[in-house]
């Protein structure tokens, strides 16, 4: 629909509006006619109602009420009456009895109206067509159609006597309404076609043709290879003429704008070339700066690495010196402990020498005692020998004494042997004690010499400890200095790295600027080429 021509869309829109309007009008008019016909049918039903009651009243007066079914059947023969039913109320049934000639019993609706006495009227569907269902109550009245109902029925005025129920066909009404609707629709279609033709003629004359002329002029300008000197013809001051005038003014402004754009494009192209050359120079300098920054960063990193190595070595040496100091202090303590132990050993050896001297004196006393034991043993041996001689002289009486003397002699010999053995041992002990005393004396001399040597070593170690402590303090100072230098060098390296990063970023920015300048130059040349197509 967007691609339709204006006259087609305008005509279609007006036609749709006319169709909607005529449809609403036809539906409304048809509904009004049908409602009018229904009201006429209701009026007709009232006439039938009065006619039926008038006929039945006359038949009651003439005594022919028994033939009322013939009368009602005659009414049914009317073309619009599909059904009519006269039902008796309770008051009439009480006086005259039920209706024995009734063709059917009252339905629920009729029973309700016999009870409440409210009239009913509604259009309902009956088979294939609509009917108007009407049920009217009949009440006793002293003057109904010129007759007094109360005299015959003998009931109070207003008593419900019965109902008259009928169905009035609306088929003819529907046919008339449909025929009227068709006629109106045909007339509306004819009017719509006539209006569409008039609208088409007017639209073509006052809208389409001027727009086609405007379109042709715009196509000539568009296909004229950028000729901005052409103008549209102005043939009036209507909307089309005003549009042409405004378009001509716009083309004049556009002409000036294109001229300004052409001049600006030339200036932009010149400035873009200058920017390209400058950006190339800046790009070359930025590359050199980036390379120098990278070299400086590498050198600083090597310096930081060397400082870190020196710091690590200094830390290692400091650690070794501290370890040496610690071990020297332990050696000093060990030497002091050794001196104390050597003093104890000297004291023990001295006591041992004294003990050995005492032992030697004891061995000499033992030797003297063994000499005395040997003398006693020899004397005992002599006594035993004398006793044996005397026992031999005594004969048999001295035999027991001879045995004892022999045993004593054996003991004396054993004692002499033991004394000799003890003497030999004591002599050995004496000689060994002399050797021990000589060895102890030598040991005491060596201990004294060792004490002097250890004292000298202790003095040397103490001096070494002072030197090592001084070296440790110097190494601590070196380590602190190298750590500070490494920290400062690290900061310098970070600064140079930041400079290098900035140089790289600057290099990228310069490259982007150079690329943008080249693109700007190409765009300026393209703009000049495009603007050059227009004729101003």
Domains, number: 2
Structural class determined from secondary elements: alpha+beta
CA radius of gyration: 79 Å
- The tally of beta strands, per DSSP, is 4
Q: Mind summarizing the main beta sheet?
A: 4 strands, antiparallel
Going by CATH, what is the homologous superfamily of the largest domain? Methyl-accepting chemotaxis protein
> What is the chain-wise order of helices and strands?
HHEHHEEHEHHH
List segments where confidence is low: pLDDT < 50 over at least 5 consecutive residues.
none
- CATH architecture type of the largest domain: Orthogonal Bundle
CATH class of the largest domain: Mainly Alpha
How much beta, percentage-wise? 5-15%
Counted by DSSP, the helix tally is 8
Q: Distance between termini? A: 38 Å
| CATH topology value of the largest domain | Helix Hairpins
Q: What overall geometry do the principal axes of the alpha carbons give?
A: elongated
Ordered list of secondary-structure elements with their pairings:
Blueprint lengths: L5 H57 L5 H9 L4 E8 L1 H7 L11 H9 L3 E7 L2 E11 L9 H5 L6 E10 L1 H52 L16 H156 L4 H134 L4
Antiparallel strand pairs: 1-4, 2-3, 3-4
Keywords: Membrane, Transducer, Transmembrane, Transmembrane helix
Pfam family, one: HAMP
Main location: membrane
